[in-house]
Amino acid sequence: MNPFSENRSDTVASLGESELINRIRGWLGDASPQSPQGIGDDCAALDIPKEAEKFLITTDPVIYGQHFDDQISPEDSGAKLAKRNLSDIAAMGGKPFASVVSLSIPNHLQISWLERFYSGLRNQALKYQFTIAGGDVSQADSYLGIFMTMTGTSAGKALERGKAVAGCALYVTGELGGSILGKHYRFEPRLAEGQWLASRDETLGCLDLSDGLGKDCSAMLRPNLLAKLDCSRLPISEDAVTLSRSSGRSPLYHAINDGEDFELLFALSPEADLSRFAEDWSENFTTKLTRIGSVEATNNPEDFPIQLENTGEKISLTGYEHLRAT
To answer: pLDDT tens digit string along 36-51?
Structure first.
């Protein structure tokens, strides 16, 4: 659905800021409590859960032409905004708590589009049990961006990225590659899996694959470490295979470099009992789990931090990097 209209009566310009905020409050319903926990004051005033040991905060946007377009429904676009932020919370092993949403919108944005967007956002808030405590509205002439800042809590350790050590085993959840064919907005954030991983002593580090394995994996590594990835074991999605037929690139390339997989990449301690871990995982989740490699020490500063094994292909490890020309 195209978000814009030339008919002024259909657009946010016919409402003005105050009425738009009233509409948003109604659209959110139970997902936004009464003030001061929800919309109404200069700030939301929230009671932090007693069991929280760590307070988490993250932010991610969805921008028209970048993260969604006319081919994606307003509801799916709103859900994607929530799930992008939820995936960050999942990677830290946390539970979502509260969020704020800021709009940067042109005055020819359709009211009906925005209402449906908030419907998708509301459904995710109710499903994953976080609140939408407020936000802001600002006018932009030719730009549509919607920004969420989400908070979360951790009852134990918060998983971090760069905690892997030599001898760690590397794992991923789910399958990789080809997200542009639909997974980039249809995915489920791995919240339960992340919380479970945070409860395990053998989990040393974790992140969510938002920019692709070929870029994100290096964030797991401290200096003098490298990751060896077994390409014969990478869980390549059917979408990566489908995309390869039109892209001219291999399914393996897409599994390594496509962004927005939103799966968890994590490292287990060298002392971990990997067989027992896999058994415990299967008792708790149906989510696919794959060991894809290991972390090793290196004394050569010229070693690239990610090395591919068991492949006859020469693949550049790029992932997706913002602000770099493609």
So the answer is: 999 999 999 999 888 8
- Higher-pLDDT residue of 61 and 50 is 61
What are the strands of the beta sheet with 54-63, ordered from one edge? Answer: 54-63, 145-154, 95-105, 131-139
pTM given for the model: 0.95
* CB neighbour list of residue 28: distance below 8 Å, 6 or more residues apart: 38, 39, 118, 121, 122, 125, 132
Burial class (CB in 10 A: 0-12, 13-18, 19+), 151: buried
Phi/psi at 6 (5° precision): -90, -5
pLDDT on residue 317 = 84
- Map out the domains of the chain as residue ranges: 8-154, 169-309
Q: How confident is the model over 291-298, as a mean pLDDT? A: 96
Write the DSSP string, 297-319: E---TTS-SEEEES-SS------
Q: Assign domain 8-154 to its CATH architecture.
A: 2-Layer Sandwich (3.30)
Cα torsion angle, 279, 87, 209, 186, sign: positive
- 92-120 pLDDT, tens per residue? 999 999 999 999 999 999 999 999 999 99
pLDDT in tens, 228-269: 999 999 999 999 999 999 999 999 999 999 999 999 999 999
Residue 229 DSSP SS3: strand
Total H helices, total E strands in the chain: 9, 10
> Which numeric CATH code is attached to 169-309?
3.90.650.10
